[in-house]
Amino acid sequence: MSGWLTVVGLGPGDDAMTTPQVSATLQAATDVVGYSKYVERVPERTDLTRHASDNRVELERAQFALDLAAGGSQVVIVSSGDPGVFAMAAAVFEALEQGPENWLSLDISIQPGISALLAAAASLGAPLGHDFCAINLSDNLKPWALIETRLRLAAQAEFVMALYNPRSAGRPHQFARALDLLRECCGNKTLISFARDVSKPSERLQTMTLAEAKPDMADMRTLVIVGSAYTRRVGRYVYTPRSVA
Amino acid sequence: MSGWLTVVGLGPGDDAMTTPQVSATLQAATDVVGYSKYVERVPERTDLTRHASDNRVELERAQFALDLAAGGSQVVIVSSGDPGVFAMAAAVFEALEQGPENWLSLDISIQPGISALLAAAASLGAPLGHDFCAINLSDNLKPWALIETRLRLAAQAEFVMALYNPRSAGRPHQFARALDLLRECCGNKTLISFARDVSKPSERLQTMTLAEAKPDMADMRTLVIVGSAYTRRVGRYVYTPRSVA
Predict the structure, then answer these.
(1) What is the H or E stretch that residue A37 is in?
(2) What is the CATH number of the domain that holds A82?
(3) Are A80 and A39 in contact, with CB atoms under 8 Å apart?
(4) Same domain? A127 vs A107
(5) How far is it, in rounded angstroms, from Cα B184 to Cα B187?
(6) Are B68 and B10 within one domain?
(7) What's the alpha-carbon Rg for chain A, to the nearest Å?
(8) Residue B129's CATH number
């Protein structure tokens, strides 16, 4: 049997949100590759080799998986959420672009998963009911000035914003700066939601105005959703109406 | 047993992309409410009443479902894709806001699905690998001028853009206008992808430069993805690198 590589999304944490398509692909695999916390979510089998790696080594991990597939293995790379949203799918194509010519004839596919932004929105209500954007707040792969520019333009466009990787131990001050900028561009009354560990037993949701938001409400396990001027509460829910009228 | 209302996303079309969570909810329901094409995707059962309605009557459909749940039924509203992205979840909260006080104590929840944008991105490769936005091009619920403003700001922010409802029989000229605007703001060489009937047997994917794109390549069953300046091809795939360097 010839090798293949499929990049799958396991969803945000609850196994009931992993699609049957992805589960079937995992069943057919000989090798699973990924960040250790995601590889651990794949059930052990005697005929499955699990290759767990550290976080932040995406490109090497992608190269390793492509090499395994080129050697005839049936390989799955696992991502949390959706593999195409700030996750492993883009890293695989970067590795493919830089790799040997014969990798281009490999059978490579991507299978979507429930992304953190969809799961967080569902738990909160319907904050993404109107036009929205998704911005990765980490400056590992782009300059911080560009992130600030995008936040300003997104506010001007009145997009609801889903903010990934809002705050890490290595850069604790940037999210404070982002909050100041958002207060300046969107106004103090705009709603902001912090969704941590969505769909897991430890899920925690907090919604407040930008005036009340504090930087330490977010960490790397938090998805932040900043509303537009239209985003509001009804009962215990947060939603953005479909219409701007 | 007391009533409840859950709004679920069936995913883009392939049943293998419907989450086990959503399938279990449909099994537990007494009533399914939705646009006829989506209700048809729910298997018939003797103890399940299927209420199929016309498209574009979202608010009445939401009110009908809330009323059924208030009367003690176990009600599911079905959306295609994800219910929170240009679908029924926001309409339910609009109806809740306008409805009788007692609806606020109802057990209402949202269960995410694989959205068209995630499924289209996966079929194409990884075009959403960097910051992105989602814009509904229909001017049924917002002025066309606002749509143009958002396209301009999104281009300025270098967001990859997922464009929903690009073109309908009732407004065939607006997508031509949008393409002209995108050529002006993003340049002729920017890649654009048309993903029609994603995940269905009739799936069709086309990628080209903005210079080559024609308005009639899109219809209401097409999700359009406009790349950033960094979006490119590798082999048969389209992807946006994680880094802007």
Answers:
(1) helix A36-39
(2) 3.40.1010.10
(3) no
(4) no
(5) 6
(6) yes
(7) 19
(8) 3.30.950.10
Looking at the structure, tell me whether residues B126 and B205 fall in a common domain. Answer: yes
Is residue B59 domain-shared with residue B134, that is, in the same domain? no
B121 touches chain A (CB under 8 A): yes
Contact between A111 and A21 (Cβ < 8 Å): yes
Q: Which of B55, B81, B114 is the last residue of a domain?
A: B114
The H or E element spanning position B237 is strand B237-239
Does B123 touch chain A if contact means CB atoms closer than 8 Å? yes
Within this chain, do residues B109 and B208 fall inside the same structural domain, yes or no? no
DSSP bridge pairs for A109: A6
pLDDT by 10s per residue, chain A, length 245? 589 999 999 999 999 999 999 999 999 999 999 999 999 999 999 999 999 987 778 999 999 999 999 999 999 999 999 999 999 999 999 999 999 999 999 999 999 999 999 999 999 999 999 999 999 999 989 999 999 999 999 999 999 999 999 988 888 889 999 999 999 999 999 999 999 999 999 999 999 999 999 999 999 999 999 999 999 999 999 999 999 97
Q: Are residues B109 and B125 in the same domain?
A: no
The ipTM, to two decimals, is: 0.97
Same domain, B155 and B83: no
- Compute the nearest-CA separation of B51 from chain A (Å): 23
Closest listed residue to residue A231, CA positions, set A243, A223, A222: A243
| Chain B residues within an 8 Å CB radius of A24 | 16
Question: In this complex, do A85 and B128 lie within 8 Å of one another by their Cβ atoms?
Answer: yes
Query: Is A244 a member of any domain?
Result: no
Residue B126 sits in which domain range?
117-239
Angle at B188 between CA B184 and CA B193, to 5 degrees: 105
Is there a single domain that holds both residue B121 and residue B110?
A: no
Asked if the C-beta of A2 comes within 8 angstroms of chain B's C-beta atoms, the answer is: no
B185: which 2 tokens? 């703001």
Instruction: Identify the DSSP state of A230.
Output: T
CA quadruple A74, A79, A82, A88: dihedral sign: negative
Q: Would the CB atoms of A111 and B122 count as touching at under 8 Å?
A: yes
A17 touches chain B (CB under 8 A): yes
| Chain Cα centroid distance, residue A194 | 15
Among B57, B79, B114, identify where a domain stops.
B114
Is the CB of B80 inside 8 Å of chain A's CB atoms?
no
Kindly report the number of other CB atoms within 10 A of residue B35's CB atom. Answer: 21
Q: In what order do the strands lie in the sheet with B232-234?
A: B125-126, B237-239, B232-234
Residue B33 is assigned to a structural domain of this protein: yes
**Inside any domain, residue B245:** no
Question: Is position B72 within any domain?
Answer: yes
